[in-house]
Amino acid sequence: MTNPTPSTSPAPSEDSDTPSVFVSDLATRAKKIKKPKAKERRRERSAPRVHHAIRPTATHRCPLHEDPADCKGVRIGPKLETIYSRLTGDIRITFNDASERLRGLTVGASNMRPSTLYRTFYETSVTLSSRVSKDTHVRHRENEHLKLRPGNAFQTVGEVQFNDNITKEGIERHLVWNKKENPSTWISMFNELSHAKRRAHFHYDESKRIGQRVTIVEISTADLIAATIHATCVSVWEILVKEKYIGWDMHYNVTTRDVQIPIWVHKSVRPADGSSITPDQLMASNADLFVSIRELRQSNLVDGPQTHSRRRTITADGHNYEWLALGRIRESRITKVIPFDGKTFHMAKPTSVVRSEAATEDWVFDFDLETWLLESEMNKAGALKRKRSDADDGDAEYAKTRGDGGEANQKNAHSLDFSIITTIFDSA
């Protein structure tokens, strides 16, 4: 099916009855029809009628309900309601504002930036990792040439797009379980070892995707400094409603607001005079970018529009202990590797062999290679040494997402090849 081509005519105004000129062909009906006189037919499906909802107040942005009270208790399917945001305008990254100096002074005391972060992973994590065999690395059709780049200990499936990823919706995409399209560009970490251990037990003992080779790594934050992104955030909220005998109606609203997003970056990107830099300068430097969920909740990033589901949001309960890395975690940040055999977390190399207790095969941990190997391969790998380069030419790793999976409820959703979101941002 080909994507519809937009017309040069202006978009219909609110409550317009003018049908959209976006048109796409529908697949032919099934050829095997029992009635002998039935013929193959084709039908044309038009894009929805578009209604631009303009709300008088900034606090109420719903494109479907004029009265905020009407939004309460309403549930709309995930394929029928979408919010997409992008950072626009003169985007600056500052280092010497009062807020950054305050965050820099509270290192350790308030856990604003812990000295060590922890990441839990296992053999089938949807993540590229230098400590997992390549044959178990994820493959994805949206990034067919996906490969772990030199210098990366972890790398995302999703390719980093700065203006799209560092938004409320870009981060909340990371919180959705098992969603394959539009893969996350964030990597999860924890600010305490206890949280990483709890996640390791979950993967080994409870998760439906069983992990038999579970490991925790310690990640240094010693060279991270506080910074803030100043930008204009444009959010497009669209809702599809199917009207009986008429077809689809699309209601949308556009919100523009200023945001200040707290981040942590490698100290090398700060100019000597402390002046601000642009996102292009940051990305060109290949410097790390980390965010704290706790800090994001205290920022105005979370003040954007909320879908009717109210789920999987940054402001949901829990996860104050979580940090996210954009795109990748460098090999040079890994300070310790802790294998979990199902019973014990081995903080140091023991005198006996570490085996995965519940594994269906004889997996043992190689402390020299810092990875799990079949015992039959240990002798072959005895002479090998891991070669890790600290050079950085990449920026992407796929973090395991969380949430309660929304794909199961999408089978009855629409399949229209039209979105006002694409139209608005492509014409910007």
Please give a structural write-up.
This protein is 13% helix and 27% strand. It is an alpha+beta fold. It has one domain. Strands 3, 4, 8, 10, 11, 12 and 13 form a seven-stranded mixed β-sheet that branches. It has a three-stranded antiparallel β-sheet with strand order 5-9-15, covered by helices on one side. The protein has a three-stranded antiparallel β-sheet with strand order 6-7-14, with no helix packed on it. A hairpin with a 3-residue loop joins strand 10 and strand 11.
Biggest sheet overview: 7 strands, mixed
- In total, the number of strands is 17
**Rg over C-alpha atoms, rounded to the nearest angstrom:** 25 Å
The class by helix and strand makeup works out as: alpha+beta
Extract low-pLDDT stretches: 1-45, 385-413
Q: How many helices in DSSP terms?
A: 8
Query: What is the CA-CA span between the terminal residues?
Result: 26 Å
Shape: globular
Domain count: the total is: 1
What percent strand? 25-35%
Question: What is the helical fraction, as a range of percent?
Answer: 10-25%
Mean pLDDT: 77
Order of helices and strands: EEEEHEEEHHEHEEEHEHEEEEEHH
Q: Name the quaternary structure.
A: single chain
Overview features:
disordered N terminus, seven-stranded mixed β-sheet, DUF7587, single chain, DUF7587 domain-containing protein, 428 residues, 8 helices
Q: Topology of this structure?
A:
Blueprint: E1 23-25, E2 44-46, E3 49-52, E4 81-94, H1 98-105, E5 116-121, E6 128-129, E7 152-155, H2 162-165, H3 168-172, E8 186-190, H4 193-206, E9 214-220, E10 224-243, E11 247-266, H5 279-284, E12 289-292, H6 293-297, E13 322-326, E14 328-330, E15 334-340, E16 363-366, E17 371-374, H7 375-381, H8 420-426
Parallel strand pairs: 3-11
Antiparallel strand pairs: 1-2, 4-10, 5-9, 6-7, 7-14, 8-13, 9-15, 10-11, 11-12, 12-13, 16-17
Biased composition (Low complexity): 1-13
Biased composition (Basic residues): 29-40
Pfam families: DUF7587
